[in-house]
Amino acid sequence: MIRTAVATDVPVIHAMIRELAEYEKAPHEAVATEEQLRDALFGADPAVFGLIAEDVAEDGTTGEPVGFALWFRNFSTWRGTHGIYLEDLYVRPQARGGGHGKALLLELARIAVERGYSRVEWSVLDWNQPSIDFYKSIGAVPMDEWTVYRLTDEALAAAGRR
C-alpha cells in the first residue's frame, strides 16, 4: 500500500498537490512545477523524499496512487539528532477512511526510528478538524505554544538584500 516515490510519480504528485491546495483554499499559492518537483525529489542532490499510497486490489495488485507524503530531514539542536518534517500529506477524497493516511504516517515513523531520528513533525491548518482529530488519534500532540513564521516573496527578497 505504501511505497517510495519514483520519478514517474511526479505528474500524479503534482496533480495531488494541486488538489491539496484546492482543499486548503489556496490554489493560487501552489505554483510548483513538475520540473521543480522532479529536481527536488530526483535531481543530482535530492533534499525532499516522497511516499506514495496506492489502493490494493483483492488479488493483491496495486492500483492508482491515492495519496502521498513529501518530507525532508530537519535537525534538533536540543536533541542533537535529525528528524523528519512532513511537508505535505494528502489522500484523495474517494480513498479517505481506507487507512492510507495512517499508513503514510506510520511509514514515516518507521523511517525515523530506523534512522535514529528523534521526531516527526508537521503543520496543520487550525480549521482542519478532521485532520487534527486523526493526528491526535495516533498520539500526535499539538505544539500550541509555538507560532510558525514565514518569509516569502517581496518580504524575503527585501530581507535578503539587507
What are the main properties of this structure?
162 residues, 35% helix, alpha+beta, five-stranded mixed β-sheet, 25% strand
Brief sketch in words of this structure:
The protein has helices at 10-23, 34-42, 100-115, 129-137, 153-160; strands spanning 2-4, 49-56, 62-76, 81-91, 120-122. It is of the alpha+beta class and 162 residues long. A 5-stranded mixed β-sheet has the order 1-2-3-4-5, with helices on both faces.
Mind explaining what this structure looks like?
This protein is an alpha+beta fold and 162 residues long. Helix content is 35%, strand content 25%. The chain is built from five helices and five strands. The chain has a five-stranded mixed sheet with strand order 1-2-3-4-5, sandwiched between helices. Strand 3 and strand 4 form a beta hairpin. The termini are far apart. The relative contact order is 0.13.
Beta-strand fraction estimate: 15-25%
Taken from the alpha-carbon principal axes, the silhouette is: globular
Indicate the multimeric state: single chain
Query: CA-to-CA gap between the ends?
Result: 48 Å
Helix share, percent: 25-40%
Rg computed from alpha carbons, rounded to a whole number of angstroms: 17 Å
Helix-strand layout with pairing:
Layout: E1 2-4, H1 10-23, H2 34-42, E2 49-56, E3 62-76, E4 81-91, H3 100-115, E5 120-122, H4 129-137, H5 153-160
Parallel strand pairs: 4-5
Antiparallel strand pairs: 1-2, 2-3, 3-4
